[in-house]
């Protein structure tokens, strides 16, 4: 959701330990404790190309799937990341509303 009104910046999601991903690239937040997800993580570790480990050595609690096909491992729970994602979305919407209000006020000659 980046455009000229927001300066071309997309909001960032902190996935833990000051590691960030673009919020508009997040496709899914999935718990890491199921067998299929554990197998997927092991497969991606063997491939070594699409996996980004942002756990800083901590236990993986959430797997973040990105629209680019990359997978990010986070030590934070999916609930925590979902709350942060919603907050980032709300901040962007508020900023866009403020910019629209300013633009309409300028257009009205105020």
User: What Rg do the Cα atoms give?
Assistant: 18 Å
Count of all domains: 1
Shape: elongated
Strand order of the largest sheet: 3-5-6-4
Q: Strand share of the residues?
A: 15-25%
Major sheet description: 4 strands, mixed
Measured as a percent range, the helix fraction is 25-40%
- Helical region count? 2
What is the straight-line distance between the termini? Answer: 29 Å
Mean pLDDT: 89
What is the H/E string? Answer: EEEHEEEH
Low-confidence region ranges: none
- Strand element count: 6
Q: Given the helix and strand composition, which structural class is it? A: alpha+beta
Defining key terms:
110 residues, alpha+beta, 4-stranded mixed β-sheet, two-stranded antiparallel ribbon, 6 strands, 39% helix
Can you put this structure into words, describing what you see?
With 110 residues, this protein is of the alpha+beta class. The chain has helices at residues 35-47, 78-107; strands at residues 12-16, 19-22, 26-31, 51-53, 62-66, 71-74. It has one domain (8-100). Helices cover 39% and strands 25% of the residues. A hairpin with a 4-residue loop joins β5 (62-66) and β6. The protein is elongated, with a radius of gyration of 18 Å. The model has no long low-confidence stretch (mean pLDDT 89).
Would you summarize the structure shown here?
The protein has 110 residues and is an alpha+beta fold. Helix content is 39%, strand content 25%. Strand 1 and strand 2 (19-22) form a beta hairpin.
């Amino acid at each position: 959701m980046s455009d000229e009104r927001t300066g071309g910046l997309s909001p960032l999601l902190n996935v833990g330990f000051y590691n960030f991903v673009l919020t508009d690239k997040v496709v899914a937040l999935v718990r890491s404790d199921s067998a299929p997800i554990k197998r997927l993580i092991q497969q991606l570790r063997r491939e070594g190309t699409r996996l980004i480990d942002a756990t800083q050595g901590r236990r993986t609690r959430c797997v973040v799937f990105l629209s680019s096909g990359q997978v990010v491992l986070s030590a934070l729970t999916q609930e925590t990341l979902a709350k942060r994602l919603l907050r980032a979305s709300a901040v962007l919407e508020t900023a866009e509303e403020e910019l629209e209000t300013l633009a309409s006020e300028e257009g009205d000659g105020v």
